[in-house]
Design brief:
- By secondary structure, the chain is α+β, with helices and mostly antiparallel strands.
- 50% of the residues lie in helices and 15% in strands.
- The chain has 7 helices and 9 strands, in the order ααβββααβαβαββββα.
- The strands form 2 sheets. A 7-stranded mixed sheet has the order 2-1-5-4-3-8-9. It has a two-stranded antiparallel sheet with strand order 6-7.
- The N terminus is likely disordered.
């Protein structure tokens, strides 16, 4: 029985040696892999460096940016505003003693009108209506229509100003036989500068400018029937003084 046990131990011992021997090739494989990685690493870093160089060259070039329609429109408006005679985003407040600024609006014929030129040769009365062809506004407009000869006799032009479109104003002018021009201020830029624009609405009012464009009188707000009467009284007063 003892010799058999020895034989068993001898049989086991060679098995352990074979395990160590079989492990050696695996270690060699790992060493080879590491060597391959070291050799390949410089190539990869060179490739990354080359890619980075290409990216840098691309970034150095001025990017081509496509503008949206809104951006194009905004830039065109900014360019148009440089001449000082087109619609801007806002105007400084206009009070008694201030001169009518250069600002372009459309009239009822859809023609451009620089408001600064309106009082160049004569006095100017500008009355504001909340909405064309409505009862109160029609009363006010017809009052100026009926007294229009009196205004012109005293050297004053009359203009109606509202946020209505030129086409709407033209229909109203024809319907009521209004003898004076109408100005369209859809964004209420001039209306707001005059102090008659608030909350997206127009306050019924009127403004009187002396020859040369200086604001000399204003009524904000005013009743439809009172506006033409009060404006004419003031015009007669200042012309009598001069």
């Amino acid at each position: 029985m003892a010799p058999r046990a020895k034989a068993t131990s001898e049989a086991v011992e060679p098995a352990r040696r074979s395990t160590r021997i079989s492990a050696q090739p695996k270690a060699a494989v790992e060493v080879v892999k590491e060597a391959i990685k070291k050799v390949a690493a410089p190539k990869a870093s060179k490739k990354r460096a080359a890619d980075a160089g290409e990216e840098k060259e691309v970034s150095d070039e001025a990017p081509v940016v496509k503008k949206s329609k809104a951006e194009k429109s905004g830039s065109e408006e900014a360019g148009d505003a440089s001449d000082g005679k087109v619609n801007a985003g806002s105007l400084s407040p206009i009070d008694i003693g201030d001169v009518l600024p250069s600002y372009t609006l459309k009239n009822e014929k859809d023609e451009d009108v620089d408001v600064a030129t309106l009082a160049a040769g004569k006095g100017l009365v500008v009355f504001l209506v909340p909405k064309a062809d409505t009862p109160g506004c029609t009363t006010q407009a017809c009052g100026y229509r009926d007294s229009y000869p009196d205004f012109t006799e005293h050297g004053f032009n009359v203009y109606c100003l509202s946020a209505d479109k030129p086409a709407t104003q033209a229909k109203w002018q024809t319907k009521k036989e209004l003898p004076y021009p109408l100005l369209s201020d859809p964004k209420r830029v001039l209306i707001t500068a005059l102090g008659a624009g608030e909350g997206g609405k127009t306050k019924r009012s009127h403004f009187i400018f002396a020859k040369g464009g200086k604001l000399v009188d204003k009524k904000v707000p005013v009743k439809p029937a009172d506006s033409p009467r009060l404006a004419l009284e003031f015009v007669k007063l200042i012309t009598a003084e001069t």
